[in-house]
Amino acid sequence: DAGVTQSPTHLIKTRGQQVTLRCSPKSGHDTVSWYQQALGQGPQFIFQYYEEEERQRGNFPDRFSGHQFPNYSSELNVNALLLGDSALYLCASSSLIIYEQYFGPGTRLTVT
Amino acid sequence: KQEVTQIPAALSVPEGENLVLNCSFTDSAIYNLQWFRQDPGKGLTSLLLIQSSQREQTSGRLNASLDKSSGRSTLYIAASQPGDSATYLCAATGNQFYFGTGTSLTVIP
Questions:
Q1: Cβ of A92 under 8 Å from any chain B Cβ?
Q2: Is the CB of A42 less than 8 angstroms away from the CB of B43?
Q3: What mean pLDDT is predicted for residues B67-84?
Q4: What are phi and psi of A83, to 5 degrees?
C-alpha cells in the first residue's frame, strides 16, 4: 500500500500564475481533503471531495478549486496566485465512514 | 466556529520523562479527535484517533484521552525519547476539520 501520494514535491510559481497540485488517496479511501499550512501554523481546511463532488469547504476564496476523478484521485487548482499562497499544501484521504485521515507528504508551493 | 487550542506551544524535556500535551476545543459536537505528529517540512503522521463515543486510545507509549463535555483532549507520552522530537497536532472533526497550531516537542538526550 503506497499510502497517500502527492505531486509535485516542490513548486515555484510567479504571482498571477495558476497551479495544479495532485493527490492519490490511500487504497480503500473514497474521500480526499485539502489543507493549506503556512509556516508555524496548523493546517487550514480548504475543501473535501467525495463522489466527485465538493462536500465541505473552508474559508478560502473561489481562486481555490478542486476536482475528484472516478478513481478517487484529486487535484487542487489555485488561480491568480498571490505571495500569501506560499505554503505547504497537504492532501488527506479517509473513508467517509471512519473519518480517520491519512496525510500525504505535501507539496511546497513558493510564489515569487 | 470551532476553535482548537494547544498548550503549551513549545516544550523541552530530558529523555525519559513522561509528558502531557493538551488540546482544547470550543464546540463539543465532534465526530472524533485525532492526534498527529509532524516532522519539519513533512506531512502529518496519524498517531491516535478517538471516536466521539470513546474516552481514550492507546498505542505503545502513547495514550490519548477525550472529554467532550469539557472540550479537552490530552496526549500522554511515556518515557520520552529523542526520536519523539517533533510537532504534535490535534484535529477536531465536526462538519469541517479544525487543527490546533501544535506543540513543538524537544526531547534532550
A1: yes
A2: no
A3: 96
A4: -55, -35
